[in-house]
Write a structure and sequence with these properties.
This protein is an alpha+beta fold and about 650 residues long. Helices cover about 20% and strands about 40% of the residues. Strands 26, 27, 28, 29, 30, 34, 36, 37 and 38 form a 9-stranded mixed beta sheet that branches. The chain has an 8-stranded mixed beta sheet with strand order 6-5-9-2-1-11-16-13, with no helix packed on it. Strands 23-22-21-24-25 form a 5-stranded antiparallel beta sheet, with helices on one face. β24 and β25 form a beta hairpin. The radius of gyration is 30 Å and the shape is globular. The N terminus is likely disordered.
Length: about 650
């Protein structure tokens, strides 16, 4: 009897706890609970700028024009906890546009709730406050910023999208840049379409249910059926921390992907959408916008070959001429694609096109000059990695030329005028690509092993009053670092100054660049800058490399589950020749240091001779990508850099 009482009390407590928790948060649109209104922090992450109270999505099919369209619904509520989130209260809704029209937004409803004079005040988003922006030829996005957002606000919005594109059943992201208390996604399947479902970033769901929807059966073409509901739930999902040296958040966040794999026509039979890589390659070579586009490009370029005697040149000269010809005559329009979106004749006439139009034309042109070359399709870094287990074209968004040049295979690209002809854009280094070659499935690892270097050489003297050190800087960069600086600053003195004149340094003369227009040479930036010395009586403290070296570790987390992706090996070098004033003597010099491993090297040396102090240091990250198990080591290497490169020289004024 006593045991039954204890069991009853326990059951009551469980139910009461559940009831109280249910009262804390409401998943009903437009309903704000007292707990939500008064919430000041999220206990699971007290550093969070905001928290998603719930994020709810649903996809299903509805009858339309003797077939089916997709209907997608989403509803979300967010509590703003810190001022730093306010500028992030901007959202976008991607909309696909294809040959069957543009997906349609049925409804957007959005509200912001604030407490004013102890009253809950609602501010509604007006239609005039959101707008449509083109992303590329296939995607638009509807953008809006929530109105009247402040610390303590609760924001909510919901919308619906109809789509005729069955291959675009919406994926679902459980994880975001802020924590999520509750996230759910319902997908209502019908017997005419089958999808592959893939969970990334987690091993299981908090809850997963599959069941037939209640109610009467539906009928279509003599097929009786009920929707099969797949219901996925995750709770208390932590923030995805977008740390340094990551290829793309898409590769690592907790999310669900859906891929159409089979179609069962209403009249019977089955159409296999899930293919094999062999079939994908075979189909690509037959397409007018891919394989046949290359063939036409080869035919067109043969006239240019004949006119310029290209067949008499060596492979390197042929490649350089061809890439330079494309870069000088055709411009990338900013759109990505793994197949040509316009006919070749239109591209040649307009002299502008997407990635595929330019690089498929490059493949044909190189074949015309006698180079063995194949197209390679890839996914760019921001687009996410390719999963080999799923033979679909959808994840690819870029084409490169894979060519044999003087006996060596290399990847080529003709879309970026800043990029030397023997390099491909940085955005292309994203694990693997598929070479499209008849009768062969060849996966190519896309990794850069060549070291890119940035070297800072300084000549320094002290002012007469010893209060300031003045340095003449020459910063020389090579390969991908040079490419990045050229593209980022476009030779703009103001941008260069903001980048190089940092942490209390002061520019005392104009910034000059060298070799900006010659992408095949190292890029050089030179200037004169000053920095105040640290004075303690007659003690003078000097930072030998001014404030240039790293002083904060970019790796913040204790552990990491995904690779440290540096894109390419990097070497950073510093030298400084410091003239010692006649009225000063050296009290203390930095310690020498040397470290070398398979992953990393660091050296620091210092010497004094004939009234000058010569300091040099360099560090090298030897790999483009480090695996998660090496995270602690890489974090420790950054700490070594900070410790040794920020050492000081101490002089005494006599």
């Amino acid at each position: 009897m006593k045991y039954k009482k204890i069991l009853l009390i326990s059951l009551i407590l469980v139910l009461l706890t559940h009831f109280v928790f249910a009262q804390d948060f409401s998943h009903e649109f437009g309903v704000i609970t007292n707990y939500e209104r008064d919430m000041k922090k999220y206990n699971n992450d007290t550093t969070a700028e905001a928290v998603i109270i719930y994020d709810s999505g649903e996809s299903g099919f509805y009858k339309f024009d003797n077939g089916f369209n997709l209907l997608y619904k989403r509803q979300i509520k967010i509590k703003v906890l810190k001022e730093s989130y306010i500028n992030n209260a901007e959202f976008n809704i991607p909309i696909y546009k294809g040959n069957r029209g543009v997906e349609k937004i049925i409804e957007i409803e959005a509200n912001t709730y604030n407490i004013e004079n102890s009253q809950l005040i609602k501010t509604t988003l007006n239609k005039e406050q959101y707008y449509t922006e083109a992303i590329n030829e296939y995607w638009d996005q509807i953008k809006f910023a929530m109105p009247n957002v402040q610390v303590g606000s609760i924001i909510e919005f919901k919308y619906e999208i109809t789509s005729p594109y069955k291959f675009l059943l919406k994926d679902w992201e459980f994880q975001n840049s802020i924590p999520t208390i509750f996230s759910e996604y319902k997908v209502k399947m019908i017997p005419f379409y089958e999808y592959q479902i893939r969970l990334q970033g987690a091993s299981k769901f908090d809850e997963k249910n599959v069941y037939l929807e209640k109610g009467l059966e539906k009928h279509f073409y003599n097929v009786a059926y009920k929707d099969q509901v797949h219901h996925f739930i995750m709770k208390d999902v932590p923030t995805f921390k977008d740390e340094s040296f990551i290829s793309s958040r898409k590769n690592y966040i907790i999310k669900l992907d859906f891929q159409l794999s089979k179609i069962f026509p209403y009249g019977g039979g089955r159409i296999e959408i899930l293919s094999t890589w062999e079939k994908v390659i075979k189909d690509m070579l037959k397409r007018d916008d891919f394989g046949r586009y290359i063939n036409k490009s080869e035919s067109k370029f043969k006239k240019i070959v004949t006119e310029n005697s290209l067949l008499e040149k060596n492979d390197k000269d042929k490649v350089n001429y061809t890439i330079n010809y494309l870069k000088q005559n055709y411009n990338w329009n900013g759109f990505y694609s793994n197949y040509a979106t316009k006919p070749l004749n239109l591209f040649l006439k307009e002299k502008t096109g997407d990635i595929a139009q330019i690089n498929l034309y490059l493949v044909g042109a190189l074949r015309a000059v006698g180079i063995e070359v194949y197209p390679e399709i890839i996914s760019t870094r921001k687009n996410g990695k390719i999963v080999r287990q799923y033979p679909f074209l959808d994840p690819f968004n870029y084409v490169l030329a894979y060519a044999k040049v003087d006996g060596k295979w290399q990847l080529l690209d003709a879309t970026d005028t800043y990029c030397p002809n023997d390099m491909i854009p940085e955005k292309c280094f994203n694990d693997i690509g598929l070479v499209i070659k008849k009768g062969e499935v060849k996966w190519l690892k896309i990794i850069q092993n060549e070291v890119s270097v940035i070297q800072t050489d300084i000549k320094t003297k002290l002012s007469d009053d010893l209060d300031t050190i003045i340095g003449d800087f020459s910063i020389n960069s090579s390969r991908y670092i040079a490419l990045k600086l050229r593209k980022k600053f476009t030779n703009d003195p103001e941008k260069l100054e903001k980048h190089f004149i940092i942490r209390d340094m002061e520019l005392t003369d104009s910034i000059h660049t060298k070799n900006y227009d010659d992408v095949n040479k190292n890029y050089n930036v030179s200037f004169r800058a000053s920095l105040l010395t640290e004075r303690i009586g007659n003690i003078i403290i000097i930072h030998p490399f001014f404030n240039s070296p790293l002083n904060d570790n970019p790796l913040k987390e204790e552990k990491r589950k995904y690779p440290i992706d540096m894109i390419y090996p990097k070497s950073t070098m510093y030298t400084n020749e410091i003239t010692i004033p006649e009225n000063c003597r050296i009290k203390q010099l930095p310690e020498k240091y040397f470290f070398n491993s398979d992953f990393f090297s660091l050296q620091y040396s210092v010497s004094e001779n004939n009234g000058k102090i010569n300091v040099s240091s360099s560090y090298l990250f030897k790999k483009a990508v480090y695996q998660p198990e090496n995270y602690a080591k890489i974090k420790r290497y950054f700490n070594l850099i900070i410790k040794h490169l920020n050492q000081k020289i101490v002089l005494i004024e006599e």
